[in-house]
UniProtKB/TrEMBL annotation, chain A:
The keyword Transmembrane applies. InterPro entries: ABC_transp_permease. This is Inner-membrane translocator. The keyword Acetylation does not apply. The lineage of its organism: Bacteria, Bacillati, Bacillota, Bacilli, Bacillales. It comes from Thermobacillus xylanilyticus.
Amino acid sequence: MNGKAAAAGMDGDAGSARRRPAVPRLRFEFDPVRTGSPWWMPLAAVFAALAVCAVFIAAGGTDPLAVYKKMLTGAFGTRFGLTETLVKAIPLLLCGIGVSIAYRISFWNIGAEGQFLAGAMAATAVTIYMPDLPAVLALPLMTAAGIAAGGLWGLLTALPRAYFQVNELISSLMLNYIALLLLDYVVFGPWRDPGGLNFPGSPMFTADQSLPAFGSTRLHFGLVFALAAALLYAFTFRHTRWGYELRLIGANPEAARNAGISLNKHLLLVMLASGGLAGLAGMAEVSGVAHRLMYGISPGYGYTAIIVAWIARLHPVGLIVSAFLFGGLIVGGYSVQTLGLPSATSEMLQGAVLFFLIAGAAFGMIRIRRVR
Amino acid sequence: MNEPHAVEMRRICKQFGALVANDNIDFAAKPGEVHALLGENGAGKSTLMSMLSGVYRPTSGEILIRGRSVNIRSPKDALALGIGMVFQQFRLVHTLTAAENIVLGEKSSVWRGASWMRRKTEEIGAVAERFGLKIPVERPVWQLSVGEQQRVEIVKVLYRGADLILLDEPTSVLTPGEADQLFETLRQLRDAGKTVILTTHKLREVMEIADRISVMRKGRMVRTMNRYETNERELAQLMVGRAPAGVMRPAGRPPGKPLLEAEGLTVEAGKGRTAVRDLSLTVREGEIVGIAGVAGNGQSELAEVLAGLRPWSGGTIRVCGREWKRASVRTAIESGISHVPENRMKSGMAGSLGIVDNLLLKTYRHPERSRFGMLRSRRNRAWARSLVERFDVKAAGLDTPVRQLSGGNQQKLLFAREVDRDPKLMIAVHPTQGLDIGAAESVHRLLLELRAAGRGVLLISEDLDEVMQLSDRMLVMFGGTIVGEMSRENADRERIGLYMAGLQDAPGEEAS
């Protein structure tokens, strides 16, 4: 054979089968089958986000380590900080579970914010139109109204998708803005507190309309709702027939159809549940924390919940942990204001975490191999 | 050796994880020959071709093109070496014209005006004409027949200057008539000095077209020989490793009551296409009815309707004497129909879920499996374990994602699920596609066991040998309807071929 003589080869790489290059070349292979990224990926994303944000904080002339330390102690270091963190974790956990249910069947609900607001408004409506109910009636009614309104708001996304193939990403996002404007309308208009010195908010709730708090803290009964929801979520997916059907739809909708499962029916049910949980979060926020409906009632819980869900990989225990951490991030963001930084620092961190999570998932599909 | 081989592959190994797809393969093709790579599905033919075309890289071994050692890293490298591949699934953009598809990906020019396109179209026409390939270059691809699309693919590789042309299972989608036309083309290519390598598992084709034949079995090269040195019988033996006896098929009892009766069935497939028209068939207890036909003649749609997945627009369906009112998977499941769909991972299984969850798919509603809305997990696991043992499914554990099982084990699992339900009627679509011989035989045995137990089987397959081997009655589907029916005794390969090509009209009644 004259093969060896022709080592010059095509494209200048012939013969490399025999000669080892001095520096091992790396080759990137795209492998979309490799979807599962390693367990440490969410942690790595958090650390990468901290590192990148540190650059920006340092560029602003502040010591990033001092900022992170301040955030940490502000969120978890004191009794007050800790309960505040839990207060923020409640809506994050409820909304996070809500979107997780939808994501389990690959329904990309990003409308938790709107569903949250719908729930908050519905709960407030009960206090406005039935102001004199006793607590035993008012609170269950407000809870039911919150869940129902959130669920219906979710259905507004699910119905068009089920029957007209309307993309849920767009419709759920748009509905967020509709809910937000509706909130503005009611707090600036018909529901504005007449004795509130023009403050855009409803009248303060009475004690009968407020969720009980734990001791003297701001931590309220909503925590029980959130933990119960996490438990129910875990149990449903693990042990119930409905959970099995949803797992099947999530894993392979075509196979689910083959099992005689109606995809549309479950889509509607899932969005009822998903929106309902976000609505419950909205109810808990007005009744347990703000004690009124007001302008800017949500600092973006519904959006942060999406990150919470992804960082937890939709896992119930993970959701509890990540909701707690992100609650701490929000509270920590407030505490760095004493260092002269805006509270938006925490939003920057949130955004960076999501960015690295998504990047991590994409890189999870790439295999690095040394070229021989 | 004076003249170098067009291609030579030396000691090629390819591993996918633990699976050895190619084990120490030596292979060579001379310039200007049609070389057939023969082997069962899963013998490693396509893997070997993929390494030539740059889709995969060998784990070890050496590839020489025209006597030079090369390193093929990508399809682009392959093309630069004059290697062009025509894949089994065509890589064409349906909304573009044939000519546009051919120039797609060409980077020579940024500006692509009308005159550029006209010039390219002329060049393409010239290439096509030189090799006697008739293609309508100006027509969008979706309007072309499968044979024409394949010709577009061939012109594409020729236009890009390939002189080594690889075809992966080129006839699997063609009617016999189209296949003849393809062979004519291949001969012309050979006469023009091109080297053609094609993979196939069809013996008759090999004897018709190939100059030399290499037989592969289970990832190894068995032998390479000239066509005139061998015959079909020997090739078959080399391919399967022994005389292709198949499974023993015991004589059945006379068929019993009708289980499935379809009359005048018509199915619309959307976009004005009628997939099934005026089709009637009956499956009785204790018989296997085989449906042969080239893919895309309505078999898939028929199976989907009978599984309750697709609505029909005309005619009646009766299962066990009871008429179906509308398409419903639940009704199909409850009336005792089992369905092995054609693409098991696409529609039969949930790849990321474990064995237990996949076994539950059809029966999770049964009180044995779930109660008060809750799965009876412990009981289900024990049941799943017993099925895994009974059907000899090899898996690491009950929670292993079924995606990680081999094709044969996946199919065994699917059959375990469908057979354990004790179905009255089994609809099996391409049940042995992609399986090795051992797994295929166990599938055949299961189908025959169902028949012996007095169940009905409707077997839809593109593998004519399989249909002929198992069926009590054979139907041939063409253009959405049954064009030929024959009993086992009267089955005649040649006539089935004519029916499959739509060349013979419905015959006089010959069935028993």
